[in-house]
Design a protein that fits this description.
GO terms for molecular function: C-X3-C chemokine binding; collagen binding involved in cell-matrix adhesion; fibronectin binding; integrin binding; laminin binding; metal ion binding; protein kinase binding. The protein contains 17 helices and 44 strands. The protein has 801 residues and is of the alpha+beta class. The strands form 15 sheets. Strands 4-6-22-21-16-19 form a six-stranded mixed beta sheet, with no helix packed on it. A six-stranded mixed beta sheet has the order 10-9-8-11-14-15, sandwiched between helices. The two termini are 107 Å apart.
């Protein structure tokens, strides 16, 4: 398993190294034929203009390389073409610092975005960065257009909106002193499927005795005005209308409000559109129900303040609306009933700088809804840019309030911005390539919902400065078959070669190929190049440091011997697969030093007279001696005494050298062990000497001395072995003798007491024995074991047995 992991890690390392090499050598891989092509490859690439820069076998494209590589190859920095990008601010008016009470300014005199106009010169692969400031101005003018659904279900809402003008003017005066309000209404397209099943319903689409106006698509009732009473009067004259299906034609109305700026009266200030409805919406494609198939053209079609092309153009798509609202800096507030909140919240997610508010049943809360939505929209700034030219990228980084930063898509915006707050953005623009025509391009960056913007002119660096001095049809380029520029020939069409000496029709000629072979038995250009016009142009390696060269590309500078994983040991350079060593170095890999100073011993003899100096290293001929200069003899007598004082001061802080220990005794590595068993033993390490030395206090310390290659090592037992002191021996002996005497006395006393005790016990026993009185009466229970029998046959006399 360990072997597998090792192989995998090695393979990954090789892959990573190869990837790094490829990424880092884009200049070589580009095969650029001119300086202009070279500088478009990347910001790291430069072009050597020195006419004598190329070696035999090197193609013109090898003039294009990384800057450091060109320097190493001998190209002077004054001969390297390496144009850099730049930037210049053409209009950089500071953001306005203004308070509400300082007097009224015209909208065009207020600046919220800085800078306003820039020009950037872009070199391929080299980003240009600049900072954009945004400051939300105090007392900034506001235009608000109220667009209302006048279908029958909004009857109660219309009554409350009739007094909206003066009330909203009063509330908005707390935010700005320059406020205008307008009003428009919509119902539905005036085609039969959307209105009713009979034409009679067109005059009065409402049922019963309800008096309703004829249906219409969109009507601009009141142009933006600062007269709130005029708003109330005109809205009070409006009547409810009706239609057949539930979704309304509001998208037609929004489109006209967005693009008919002169009719609406939009100024270059904050533009708010309040869209009020209690129903859903039709969008692109729904017009087919009425036979309308032409897509919405996104243009203004108002005549006498009425949208006249609703029967001709389909509803706009959501994307189309988003574009037009953004182009005209309009922020949308959807004031809708709770029933349709989910639908319009989804729509809000598709329309930047929009908000959704919930209307009460009769729109009585519309003023609070507008104020809340405005505060929400104005507290967030989101940057957007116009369409970028091909090959150009842009990145944003935001620095918002309270140190909050963002990158990527979050770098485009800042939230929770109050009036007077200033935020900034770092914008980085990079060109990956030159446009096809190479002409300047203009892009714009602006905060959504605001009329201010930054205009940026992009100039592309597609040619080198030396290109201007080029000589067309130069004699240098083989009888005028090319333009001599930047130290090389740029061949005319149909011509190739370093001096444009060949026609493309001659490239495959057998005679030309023969001149690219070293002999008949070798490959063309040694299989390391291409035969171009009878001359070998050597292949380029991914590593810019590695090159083929020679008349037949038979040489290279990377296949020489190595030492310590370094080409030519790091002490020479490789030419045609042979190491050319630096001074004082020799060997096939330049790894053998001719300097003998490293072999000098302290007695100024080479290798102490006990060896030879080979490649800067002593080879000791006396096996007892070791070390870089053959001066160390671990097993020679006197080694222990020689190092005693240094071991003593470093291990125990005592001895004659304790005050100069750091200066005099740092020549070996000290390793402490717990006891003598832990000391290195012969055969376990390099040749070593076991030492036992005594200090001034008659304490012994034990250590070993060895030389591990060039490192001197001392292992020492960390505790001293000290004998008992002379003045304590009599005390100890006296104590021991006293203890022995006391022990003997106690033993005698115990023995005496035991004898006395035993004698007393024996006398007591004898006395009790003599005083004992035995009972002589017959025991009635006792039976004699003797029986008497009488033999009747013998004398009739019993015989005792």
């Amino acid at each position: 398993m360990d072997l597998k992991l090792l192989l995998i890690s090695t393979l990954l390392g090789v892959i990573c190294y190869s990837s790094a090499q490829q990424e880092g050598n884009e200049c070589i891989k580009a095969n650029a034929k001119s300086c202009g092509e070279c500088i478009q490859v990347g910001a790291k690439c430069g072009w050597c203009m020195d006419p004598g820069f190329l070696k035999q076998g090197e193609a013109t494209s090898t003039r294009c390389d990384e800057l450091e590589s060109l320097r190493k190859r001998g190209c002077s920095s004054t001969k390297v073409e390496n144009p850099r990008g730049s930037q210049r601010a053409l209009k950089n008016k500071a953001v306005t610092n203004r308070n509400k009470g300082e007097g009224k300014l015209r909208p065009e005199d207020i600046t919220q975005v800085q800078p306003q106009k820039l020009t950037l010169s872009l070199r391929s692969g080299e980003p240009q960065s600049f900072n954009l400031k945004f400051k939300r101005a105090e007392d900034y003018p506001i235009d608000l257009y109220y667009l209302m659904d006048l279908s029958y279900s909004m009857k109660d809402d219309l009554e409350n909106v009739k007094n909206l003008g003066t009330h909203l003017m009063l509330e908005m005066s707390k935010i700005t002193t320059d406020f205008k309000i307008g009003f428009g209404s919509f119902v539905e397209k005036t085609v039969m499927p959307y209105i009713s099943t009979t034409p009679a319903k067109l005059l009065n689409p409402c049922t019963g005795d309800q008096n309703c106006t004829s249906p219409f698509s969109y009507k601009n009732v009141l142009k933006l005005t600062s007269n709130g009473q005029e708003f109330n009067t005109l809205v009070g004259q409006q009547h409810i209308s009706g239609n057949l299906d539930s979704p309304e034609g509001g998208f037609d109305a929004i489109m006209q409000v967005a693009v008919c700026g002169e009719h609406i009266g939009w100024r270059n200030v904050t533009r708010l559109l309040v869209f009020s409805t209690d129903a859903g919406f039709h969008f692109a494609g729904d017009g087919k129900l009425g036979g309308i198939v032409l897509p919405n053209d996104g243009k203004c079609h108002l005549e006498n303040n009425m949208y006249t092309m609703s029967h001709y153009y389909d509803y706009p798509s959501i994307a189309h609306l988003v574009q037009k609202l953004s182009d005209n800096n309009i922020q949308t507030i959807f004031a809708i009933t709770e029933e349709f909140q989910p639908v319009y919240k989804e729509l809000k997610n598709l329309i930047p700088k929009s908000a959704v508010g919930i209307l009460s049943a009769n729109s009585s809360n519309v003023i609070n809804l507008i104020i809340d939505a405005y505060n929400s929209l104005s507290s967030e700034v989101i940057l957007e840019n116009s369409k970028l030219p091909e090959g150009v990228t842009i990145m944003y980084q935001s620095r918002c309030k309270n140190g909050v930063t963002g990158e990527g898509e979050m770098g485009r915006k800042c939230s929770n911005i109050s009036i007077g707050d200033e935020v900034s953005f770092t914008i980085r623009i990079t060109a990956k390539q030159c446009p096809k025509m190479g002409k300047p391009e203009t892009i714009k960056i602006k905060p959504l919902g605001f009329n201010e913007e930054v205009e940026i002119t992009l100039n592309f660096i597609c040619e080198c400065d030396c290109h201007k001095d080029g000589i067309e049809n130069s004699d240098i380029c083989h009888n005028g078959n090319g333009t001599y520029e930047c130290g090389a020939c740029r061949c005319n069409e149909g011509r190739i070669g370093r001096q444009c000496e060949c026609s493309t029709n001659e490239v495959t000629s057998e005679d030309l190929d023969k001149s690219c072979r070293k002999d008949n038995g070798t490959d063309i250009c040694s299989n390391n190049g291409d035969c171009v016009c009878g001359t070998c142009e050597c292949k380029k390696r991914e590593n810019p440091e590695e090159r083929y060269s020679g008349m037949f590309c038979e040489c290279d500078n990377f296949n020489c011997d190595r030492s310590n994983n370094k080409l030519c040991g790091g002490h020479g350079h490789c030419e045609c697969r042979v190491c050319i060593c630096d001074a004082n170095w020799t060997g096939s890999a330049c790894d053998c030093s001719l300097d003998t100073t490293t072999c000098l011993a302290s007695n100024k003899q080479i290798c102490n007279g006990r060896g030879t100096c080979e490649c800067g290293t002593c080879k000791c001929t006396d096996p007892k001696f070791q070390g870089p200069s053959c001066e160390i003899c671990p097993t020679c007598p006197g080694v222990c005494t020689e190092h005693k004082e240094c071991v003593q001061c470093r291990a125990f802080g005592t001895g004659e050298k304790k005050d100069t220990c750091e200066r005099d005794c740092s020549y070996f590595n000290l390793i402490k062990v717990k006891d003598r068993d832990k000391l290195p033993q012969p055969g376990q390490a390099f040749p070593l000497m076991h030492c036992k030395e005594r200090d001034a206090n008659d304490c012994w310390f034990y250590y070993t001395y060895a030389v591990n290659k060039t490192e001197k090592e001392v292992h020492v037992v960390e505790t001293l072995d000290c004998p008992a002191g002379p003045d304590i021996i009599p005390i100890v002996a006296g104590v021991v003798a006293g203890i022995v005497l006391i022990g003997l006395a106690l033993l005698l006393i115990w023995k005496l007491l035991m004898i006395i005790h035993d004698r007393r016990e024996f006398a007591k026993f004898e006395k009790e024995k003599m005083n004992a009185k035995w009972d002589t009466q017959e025991n009635h229970i006792y039976k004699s074991p003797i029986k008497k029998f009488q033999n009747p046959n013998y004398g009739h006399k019993a015989v005792d047995l």
